[in-house]
């Protein structure tokens, strides 16, 4: 009996490892996400019932959880070198000639690879298992980021095939452009400043303290270099293939070529086609294929003599900085924008580039009249990457960030630990007012038909609305005199507003534009409290009891409802008929057996998934708490729950239920 459980666990692990590999390494899944999740759940359940079979390399462990306060310094077994750069065919031909002088007149084969733009990483494997992951650091020693790297799905935790007992493999952690843009969309949605570029976001992710947070980021790991004693191959190209066989992600774009002309062809091809790749590259790396040649060539103080990076001419242009404008977002965040002399860049005319924030501005030390370099990365807005100092005229002075809001003249504030300046004039600053109304009517919020962002601005400028509640007082007769508003479009607008009384509470809550309350958080809060009046009464302490609500969100919610003006707005919206509570059939109301009870669930369960448990608690009118406190009424404990939680529950005398006992409790 116990043998067959063990066998099932092992075969599920093996199957899931394979599916994981097919999905994340080969980009060629063979089963549906649903089937995958079913198997993963089954494995989770079996593992929690049979903790003696725990394995840190199990596919169930990819979600992270380990927290690293200080990253330990690790000395690299072999130094992580840098690469020499070349920028032209001449540079590459000179490099070849230098090598021929050392090697004599041998025929050199080359491997051409793409130069992935991310954060370098060195992975150590012992007996086919990931042992350590270390950042490049200064090349001699780096930071141990193993807990974080273990969550990256394309990093194999267990190898396959015929691998050496011990070796290091190096590569680059990248954030593919699609994933990066998704992360930014989510930030913009909650009114936050987006990340500047994929590379910095990738390296920043490696240094996050909470590995569960890293697990949520769509990072990828691309490998290119194996180091070890007695490796079973003699060339770089074979090494890449071997790494693939062991389960690593090694991009197929790598190519073995016979001469420098073929290297040029490779470069020319990818200079054009790199924009079709899922991740960013800033060049090509050319490597001598033969290990014996590599050995003879050796290293300079900084880099291998047998490898050379070729940097693509970045799609860069030079232009003159004419002025800086400061944009005010809906949350009051100020973004400095460079106004440039129009210049052609990658097929479009560029007139503006983002400078992100005050720190970025002073780091670049851009000044009015400077000639600056502009580049287009994977992002939509071009960026300034530097100043052409040779063209700086004397007498220029460093730019000073503004002290007052360009729109309403309020004095700006900058909160500790934040990069962005803010205009605090919540009620009187026009772009904030318009921005909030635009957010209110946007697609994921109230989605009001017949009303768009430009019309909102028009309504505001004509004194017809000053907040989103004013929308519901509008009359067709007031709209008619406006530009572009005919009878029909005016009626449509009013109709759209009337229709919006059917929008469910969670979207109305999101529409209110409370800072940090995005779509998902709004859903959580709406389902938990069910009613805006209940939500409005909560303290920060209560709010952080809710699953997935942190202190930052809690503070923001409390301060929103503290403001008299917001309470008045909500009252008016209620009178207009908007939904401010969840009707019981929406939550699949079953009973009120758990009314008034806060229940924390912890550990892994067999009868229910965690999500099902949460739904059950809510269906019986209870609340799901996120952490154990004096306000917790019950703890439903599964397998593998943290000992500290258990201890806390015991100390506070909180009844601890098994899932079976919980099922009894909600029965009949
Ligand atoms: P640099 O930082 O400009 O000196 O470039 C050297 C870095 O390029 C290395 O440390 C690697 O992290 C990175 N790199 C990216 N792709 C490759 C590749 N295919 N082969 C070698 N190094 C690469
Ligand atoms: Zn302002």
Characterise the protein shown here.
This protein is of the alpha+beta class and 668 residues long. It folds into five domains: 61 residues, Helix hairpin bin (Helix Hairpins, Orthogonal Bundle), CATH 1.10.287.610; 237 residues, D-amino Acid Aminotransferase, Chain A, domain 1, CATH 3.30.470.30; 76 residues, Beta Barrel (OB fold (Dihydrolipoamide Acetyltransferase, E2P)), CATH 2.40.50; 73 residues, Orthogonal Bundle (DNA polymerase, domain 1), CATH 1.10.150.20; 81 residues, 3-Layer(aba) Sandwich (Rossmann fold). Helix content is 36%, strand content 18%. The strands form five sheets. Strands 12, 13, 14, 15, 16 and 17 form a six-stranded antiparallel beta sheet that branches. Strands 2-11-10-3-9 form a five-stranded mixed beta sheet. Strands 5-4-7-8 form a four-stranded antiparallel beta sheet. A hairpin with a 4-residue loop joins strand 12 and strand 13. The longest helix has 23 residues. It is flat. The two termini are 34 Å apart. The structure holds adenosine monophosphate (AMP) and zinc ion (ZN).
Question: Any chance you could write out the topology, listing elements then pairs?
Answer:
Elements: H1 2-24, H2 33-49, E1 73-75, E2 85-86, H3 89-103, E3 110-116, E4 119-126, E5 129-135, E6 141-143, H4 146-149, E7 166-174, H5 177-189, H6 198-206, H7 211-215, E8 220-227, H8 236-246, E9 255-257, H9 260-273, E10 281-288, H10 291-297, E11 307-311, E12 316-328, E13 333-345, E14 348-354, H11 358-364, E15 371-375, E16 383-387, E17 421-422, H12 430-441, H13 453-461, H14 476-479, H15 487-499, H16 505-511, H17 519-529, H18 532-536, H19 540-544, H20 551-562, H21 564-575, E18 598-602, H22 610-619, E19 623-625, E20 634-637, H23 643-651, E21 656-657, H24 659-666
Parallel strand pairs: 2-11, 18-19, 18-20, 20-21
Antiparallel strand pairs: 1-6, 3-9, 3-10, 4-5, 4-7, 7-8, 10-11, 12-13, 12-15, 13-14, 13-17, 15-16
Helix pairs in contact: 1-2, 12-13, 16-17
Bound molecules: adenosine monophosphate and zinc ion (ZN).
The site of zinc ion has 8 residues, from loops.
């Amino acid at each position: 009996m116990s043998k067959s459980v063990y066998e099932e666990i092992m075969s599920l692990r093996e199957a899931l490892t394979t599916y994981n590999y097919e999905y994340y390494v080969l980009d060629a899944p063979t089963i549906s996400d649903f089937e995958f999740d079913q198997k993963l759940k089954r494995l989770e359940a079996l593992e929690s019932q049979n903790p003696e079979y725990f394995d840190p390399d199990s596919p169930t462990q990819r979600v992270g959880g380990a927290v690293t306060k200080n990253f330990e310094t690790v000395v690299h077994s072999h130094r992580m070198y840098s690469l020499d750069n070349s920028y032209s065919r001449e540079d590459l031909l000179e490099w070849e000639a230098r090598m021929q002088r050392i090697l004599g007149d041998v025929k050199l084969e080359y491997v051409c690879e793409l130069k992935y733009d991310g954060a370098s990483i060195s992975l150590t494997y012992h007996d086919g298992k990931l042992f350590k992951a270390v950042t490049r650091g200064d090349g001699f020693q780096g930071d141990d980021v193993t807990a974080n790297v273990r969550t990256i799905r394309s990093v194999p935790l267990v190898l396959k095939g015929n691998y050496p007992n011990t070796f290091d493999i190096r590569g680059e952690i990248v954030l593919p452009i699609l994933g990066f843009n998704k992360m930014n969309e989510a930030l913009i949605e909650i009114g936050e400043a987006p990340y500047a570029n994929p590379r910095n976001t990738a390296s920043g992710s490696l240094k996050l303290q909470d590995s569960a947070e890293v697990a949520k980021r769509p990072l990828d790991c691309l490998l290119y270099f194996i180091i070890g004693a007695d490796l079973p191959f003699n060339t770089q190209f074979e090494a890449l293939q071997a790494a693939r066989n062991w389960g690593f992600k090694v991009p197929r774009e790598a190519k073995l070529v016979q001469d420098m002309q073929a290297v040029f062809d490779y470069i020319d091809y990818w200079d054009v086609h790199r924009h079709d790749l899922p991740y960013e590259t800033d060049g090509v790396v050319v490597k001598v294929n033969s290990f014996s040649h590599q050995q003879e060539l050796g290293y300079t103080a900084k880099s291998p003599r047998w490898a050379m990076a070729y940097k693509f001419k970045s799609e860069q242009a030079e232009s003159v900085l004419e002025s800086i404008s400061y944009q005010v977002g809906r949350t009051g965040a100020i973004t400095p924008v460079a106004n440039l002399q129009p210049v052609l860049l990658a097929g479009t005319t560029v007139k503006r580039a983002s400078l992100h924030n005050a720190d970025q501005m002073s780091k670049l030390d851009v000044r009015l009249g400077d000639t600056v370099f502009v580049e287009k990365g994977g992002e939509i807005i071009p960026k300034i990457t530097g100043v052409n100092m040779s063209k700086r005229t004397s007498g220029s002075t460093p730019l000073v960030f503004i002290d007052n809001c360009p729109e309403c003249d309020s004095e700006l504030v900058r909160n500790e630990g934040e990069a962005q300046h803010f205009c605090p004039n919540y009620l009187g600053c026009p772009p904030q007012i318009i921005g909030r109304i635009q957010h209110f009517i946007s697609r994921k919020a109230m989605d009001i038909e017949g009303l768009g962002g430009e019309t909102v601005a028009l309504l505001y400028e004509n004194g017809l609305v000053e907040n989103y509640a004013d929308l519901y007082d509008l009359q067709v007769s007031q709209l008619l005199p406006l530009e572009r508003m005919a009878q029909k479009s005016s009626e449509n607008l009013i109709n759209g507003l009337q229709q919006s009384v059917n929008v469910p509470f969670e979207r109305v809550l999101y529409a209110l534009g409370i800072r940090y309350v995005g779509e998902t958080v709004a859903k959580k809060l709406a389902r938990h409290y069910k009613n805006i009046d209940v939500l409005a009464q909560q303290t920060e302490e209560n709010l952080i009891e809710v699953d997935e609500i942190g202190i930052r969100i809690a503070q923001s919610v409390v301060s929103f409802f503290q403001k008299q003006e917001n309470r008045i707005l909500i009252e008016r919206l209620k009178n207009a008929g908007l939904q401010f509570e969840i009707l019981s059939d929406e939550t699949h109301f079953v009973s009120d057996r758990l009314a008034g009870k806060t229940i924390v669930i912890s550990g892994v369960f067999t009868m229910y998934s965690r999500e099902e448990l949460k739904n059950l608690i809510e269906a019986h009118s209870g609340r799901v708490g996120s952490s154990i406190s004096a306000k917790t009424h019950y703890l439903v404990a599964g397998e593998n729950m943290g000992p500290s939680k258990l201890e806390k529950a015991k100390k506070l005398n909180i009844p601890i239920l098994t899932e079976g006992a919980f099922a009894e409790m909600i029965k009949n």
